[in-house]
């Protein structure tokens, strides 16, 4: 009676939306089963996308043809490029979004895709015939037939919410927990675990005294996330505000510690170490007498404020009293208390690099269900799972990104090889090639891959090719141009540049501190003519490539060296136990992870370089 689908995506969060959009755009028929259509792409926690390392991920999603960047551009109320004062590997775009518009834009995007059907209900069971997936069953007993399933349940699997001594089932405040799936998967042989995360209270902006806080405005010339011509460029922005806790705030919070589920053992799951609750911060950093708080608007037309830095699961009366001790919050009214949530996750070492499970063919996991935290981490996994679910049923090649190609590659490689004990979030320090994986060059790194897949549109590919040509031309021209610094030039004077008795290569000149492309073109006006009509971003890219040339080359060489190991294939189903020369720990771990290349094997914790040599010798003999 109901149509059959190529792919069913369970859960309409950040991972689910990207998965459904990707598989459908590639040509699969997709059903998105989600508990509540009103909460599609809901931002469960802070209304912001991007930030350090996460902004790079959003740019990568965009370059591949995913939608998180475009949706953010259409819903943002503030844009900042973080870490501008540091090197370009650290520049990270971050946008504050209108929570309601963000969700609406995602829903519009999915509704505009005729290959996506939506069904609002809880999915309770994956229907199987033997070891083959045939469908998905819902709480009403409706069965939809499908060839593959992508699970993106977020924090909903057996979710348990904690506020002080109160605890109740829920996947998010005001929403039901998802039941049935964990138990079925465990029955099938999957290992499950428990994690926790938390969110701060939301307050009424009309009750705050902004005069007592420090304003944090958006960038003067805001950029956007997407490389495509999305409609948005911000003409106005909303500011955030900064204030601090104090000993008086901490004293009030401490009065609730005996009722805190964090401290009395009621919460069992491990939380995100890098995003601790305020009670955790006070406890762990007892010597500090204040912690920074960012007051962030939740949208264009709402007075609701997100209190970033004040995540808590203390009793609501304690939260309220403590808030009122914060500078500028003396008359604060609270809209919703903060809370913590515990939920089930599945250790991601049970996945292949396509995010397909090793145990059940055509079953994929993406997002928080894999032990990650964050919208960006979830969205990128959803994108990869959606692509791979489609490719597999259409008998196309698996789509895997290398660690040297994308943060998304780092994320998935870390998850499947190392697993995670606590909610995993991306940091620049996790990427060994972070000078290559910049936010400014994600289009150059990935658009062709997205275009070849059929996900990134042709206009994007053409635009990137044009940009690449311009960059090459700028770099080549600068290599052949010399610069003479003439103090008569006021712009050069302003930068305190000494006159040069002899001309120097433009490529040397641009490497100097405080010198960029504008100054280089100013110093030799023939360049202005040569690059007339070139895109601003192409000029910026050429500047980065030349300024950081030595570092980039070094990383590229390293990446190329390691490619040898990455290209060294291990046959699927290889019997690692048969190599007795390997340590028993390595044999056990390799059997569990089942790496498909020597590179992947080398990143499994406990596997030594000696093990890799032994494996290589063994594989060579079999050739
Ligand atoms: P979600 O966004 O959770 O979406 C899951 C979707 O699946 C929902 O739409 C749900 O209705 C649906 N669903 C679930 N089960 C079923 C089912 N059986 N049938 C049908 N539909 C189903 N991230 C941070 O980076 N920093 C933070 O500080 C932070 N704090 C958080 C605090 C709280 C209280 C919560 C709830 C989340 C927090 N997060 C935080 C996490 C962030 O919200 C998630 O990482 C991100 O939303 C995960 O995306 P997802 O797509 O995996 O799942």
TrEMBL record:
Principal place of residence: cytoplasm
SUPFAM superfamilies: FAD/NAD(P)-binding domain
Keyword annotations: Cytoplasm, FAD, Flavoprotein, NAD, tRNA processing
Functional note: NAD-binding protein involved in the addition of a carboxymethylaminomethyl (cmnm) group at the wobble position (U34) of certain tRNAs, forming tRNA-cmnm(5)s(2)U34.
Annotated compartments: Cytoplasm
Cross-referenced PANTHER family: GLUCOSE INHIBITED DIVISION PROTEIN A (PTHR11806), PROTEIN MTO1 HOMOLOG, MITOCHONDRIAL (PTHR11806:SF0)
Domain tRNA uridine 5-carboxymethylaminomethyl modification enzyme C-terminal subdomain: residue ranges: 546-617
Superkingdom per UniProt: Bacteria
Record: residues binding NAD(+): 271-285
GO cellular component entries: cytosol
Species of provenance: Flammeovirga pectinis
Family: Belongs to the MnmG family.
Binding site for FAD: 11-16
An annotated Gene Ontology molecular function: flavin adenine dinucleotide binding
Required cofactor(s): FAD
Subunit structure comment from the entry: Homodimer. Heterotetramer of two MnmE and two MnmG subunits.
Official protein name in the record: tRNA uridine 5-carboxymethylaminomethyl modification enzyme MnmG
InterPro entries registered for this protein in UniProt: FAD/NAD-bd_sf, GIDA_C_N, MnmG, MnmG-rel, MnmG-rel_CS, MnmG_C, MnmG_C_subdom, MnmG_C_subdom_sf
Keyword Cytoplasm belongs to the record: yes
GO biological process per UniProt: tRNA methylation; tRNA wobble uridine modification
């Amino acid at each position: 009676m109901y149509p059959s689908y190529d792919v069913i995506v369970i859960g309409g969060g950040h991972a689910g939306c990207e998965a459904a959009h990707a598989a459908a755009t590639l040509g699969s028929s997709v059903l998105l089963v989600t508990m509540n259509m009103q909460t599609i792409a809901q931002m469960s926690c802070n209304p912001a996308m991007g930030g350090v390392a996460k902004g790079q991920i959003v740019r990568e999603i965009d370059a591949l043809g995913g939608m998180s960047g475009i949706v953010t551009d259409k819903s943002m109320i503030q844009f900042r490029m973080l870490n501008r004062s540091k090197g370009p590997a650290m520049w990270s775009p971050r946008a504050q979004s209108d929570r309601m518009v963000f969700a609406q834009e995602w829903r519009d995007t999915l509704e505009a895709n005729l290959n996506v059907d939506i069904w609002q209900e809880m999915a309770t069971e994956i229907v199987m015939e033997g070891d083959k997936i045939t469908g998905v069953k819902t709480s009403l007993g409706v069965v939809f037939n499908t060839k593959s399933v992508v699970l993106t349940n977020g924090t909903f699997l057996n979710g348990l919410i904690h506020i002080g001594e109160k605890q109740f089932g829920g996947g998010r405040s005001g929403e039901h927990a998802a039941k049935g799936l964990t138990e079925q998967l465990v029955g099938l042989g999957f290992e499950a675990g428990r994690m926790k995360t938390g969110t701060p209270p939301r307050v009424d902006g009309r009750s705050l005294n902004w005069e007592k806080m420090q304003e944090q405005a958006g960038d003067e010339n805001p950029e956007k996330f997407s490389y495509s011509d999305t409609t948005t460029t911000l003409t106005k922005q909303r500011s955030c505000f900064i204030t601090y806790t104090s000993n008086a705030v901490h004293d009030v919070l401490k009065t609730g510690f005996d009722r805190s589920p964090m401290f009395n053992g009621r919460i069992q799951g491990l939380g995100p170490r890098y995003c601790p609750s305020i009670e955790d911060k006070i406890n762990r950093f007892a010597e500090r007498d204040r912690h920074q708080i960012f007051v962030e608007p939740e949208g264009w037309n709402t007075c609701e404020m997100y209190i970033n830095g004040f995540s808590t699961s203390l009793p609501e009366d304690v939260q309220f009293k403590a808030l009122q001790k914060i500078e500028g919050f003396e008359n604060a009214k609270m809209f919703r208390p903060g809370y913590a949530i515990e939920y089930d996750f599945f250790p991601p070492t049970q996945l292949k690099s396509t995010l397909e499970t090793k145990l059940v063919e055509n079953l994929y996991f993406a997002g928080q269900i894999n032990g990650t935290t964050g919208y960006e981490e979830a969205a990128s996994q959803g994108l990869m799972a959606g692509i791979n679910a489609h490719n597999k049923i259409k008998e196309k090649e698996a789509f895997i990104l290398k660690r040297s190609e994308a943060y998304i590659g780092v994320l998935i490689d870390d998850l499947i090889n190392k697993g995670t004990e606590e909610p995993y979030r991306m940091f620049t320090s996790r990427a060994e090639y972070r000078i290559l994986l910049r936010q400014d060059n994600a289009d150059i790194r990935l658009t062709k891959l997205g275009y070849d897949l059929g996900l990134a549109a042709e206009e994007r590919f053409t635009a990137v090719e044009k940009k690449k040509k311009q960059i090459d031309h700028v770099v080549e021209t600068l290599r052949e141009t010399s610069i003479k610094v003439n103090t008569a030039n006021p712009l050069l004077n302003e930068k305190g540049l000494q006159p040069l008795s002899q001309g120097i290569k433009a490529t040397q000149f641009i490497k100097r501190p405080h010198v960029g492309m504008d100054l280089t073109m100013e110093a030799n006006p023939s360049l202005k003519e040569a690059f007339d009509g070139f895109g601003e971003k192409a000029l910026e890219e050429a500047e980065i490539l030349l300024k950081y040339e030595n570092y980039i080359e070094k990383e590229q060489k390293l990446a190329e060296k390691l490619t040898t190991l990455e290209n060294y294939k291990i046959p699927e189903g290889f019997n690692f136990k048969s190599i007795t020369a390997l340590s028993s720990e390595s044999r056990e771990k390799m059997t569990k992870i089942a790496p498909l290349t020597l590179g992947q094997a080398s990143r499994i914790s406990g596997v030594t370089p000696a093990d890799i040599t032994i494996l290589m010798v063994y594989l060579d003999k079999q050739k």
